[in-house]
Specification:
Shape: globular
Helix content: 55-70%
Structural class: mainly alpha
Order of helices and strands: HHHHHHHEHHHEHHHH
Oligomer: single chain
Largest sheet: 2 strands, antiparallel
Radius of gyration: 28 Å
Number of helices: 14
């Protein structure tokens, strides 16, 4: 007996074609890319490669820069280019209320201040004056992610990023294009070195670099240290095995160590003290204010 296969209807042939197409695309089409897959911001791609080339592990850099909180942020960096030290009102820290708050701070942190003074020979009133002016005694620490600030500034070495900054300054431009280009070159090199120091510091202290916030310039903590200073001059004041500049004991000891590093000694004369404090912030107005605060705290 001869077998005759059943005749397929037009409807059946249509269903077979559809089924074949479904199977073909299922097994041959590439898997779709998740819409929310983390990527390095385009403006920071070359910076990421540069860091890897300079010795950071690819896993560490990629896991850091693919964090969705990491971004190229011109808004914050533009402040760095229009900032004027002379426009700041340091006299506000000489008010009766500010001095009263500083005296209370000295009482609250008496043990740490005395310990730092004993170890490093730095007057506790000067340490307190710095903390008062830098962060209002630790109450204002800045709210900009340090990694975004330093990465954005470092990435200005790329022409497209530099042009974007120039355009963003608009009416705020206070210098010629030539001066702008020179400043960008200098600051991008400086920021790249600070970014490297920041990432090394974060690795050493086992902290999440994306979580650290600071000033518009990338300074961080109660002492407002730049990362290079945190890495080399930061001190573990409370002996917990970590340098955490967001804790008062560590900030106090780190400031004292910084000043000693630049030549501070017990009973240093005022001229020498001025020269050393100028290293902390290159502003005579700033330094004069610190010394006046110190005088008032001594009573």
């Amino acid at each position: 007996m001869t077998y005759h296969p059943p005749v397929m209807t037009k409807h059946g042939r249509f269903l077979l074609i559809i089924l074949s197409l479904i199977l073909m695309f299922t097994f041959t089409s590439p898997a779709p890319t998740p819409a929310n897959e983390a990527k390095v911001p385009q403006e920071l791609n070359q910076l990421e490669n540069r860091l890897i080339k300079d010795g950071f592990s690819r896993d560490y850099i990629e896991s850091t820069f693919t964090n969705p909180k990491v971004s190229f942020s011109l808004k914050g960096v533009s402040l760095f280019f229009v900032h004027s030290e002379s426009s700041l009102n340091y006299d506000q820290f000489l008010s009766r209320k500010s001095i009263s708050n500083a005296l209370k701070y000295m009482a609250d942190h008496k043990q740490d201040l005395q310990a730092a003074e004993g170890i490093y020979g730095v007057d506790k009133t000067v340490i307190t004056a710095i903390i008062l002016v830098e962060t209002r005694l630790g109450t204002y620490l800045g709210n900009r992610p340090v990694i975004n600030t330093l990465s954005t500034m470092a990435a200005l070495s790329e022409k497209s990023n530099k042009e974007a900054l120039w355009a963003s300054l608009s009416d705020s431009k206070r210098f010629t294009r030539e001066k702008f280009d020179k400043k960008v070159l200098k600051k991008s090199q400086w920021a790249y070195a600070e970014l490297q120091a920041f990432l090394k510091f974060a690795q050493r202290e086992k902290i999440d670099p994306v979580a650290v916030k600071g000033s518009y310039a990338g300074a961080m903590g109660i002492s407002q240290f730049m990362p290079s200073n945190a890495l080399t001059l930061g001190k573990d004041g409370n002996k917990d095995g970590k340098v955490n500049l967001f804790e008062h004991p560590d900030a106090i000891h780190s400031i004292a160590n910084y000043l000693k590093r630049y030549g501070w000694k017990p009973n240093v004369n005022r001229q020498k003290a001025h020269k050393i404090l100028y290293k902390y912030n290159h502003s005579n107005y700033y330094v004069d204010t610190l010394l006046k605060i110190s005088d008032k705290l001594k009573g």
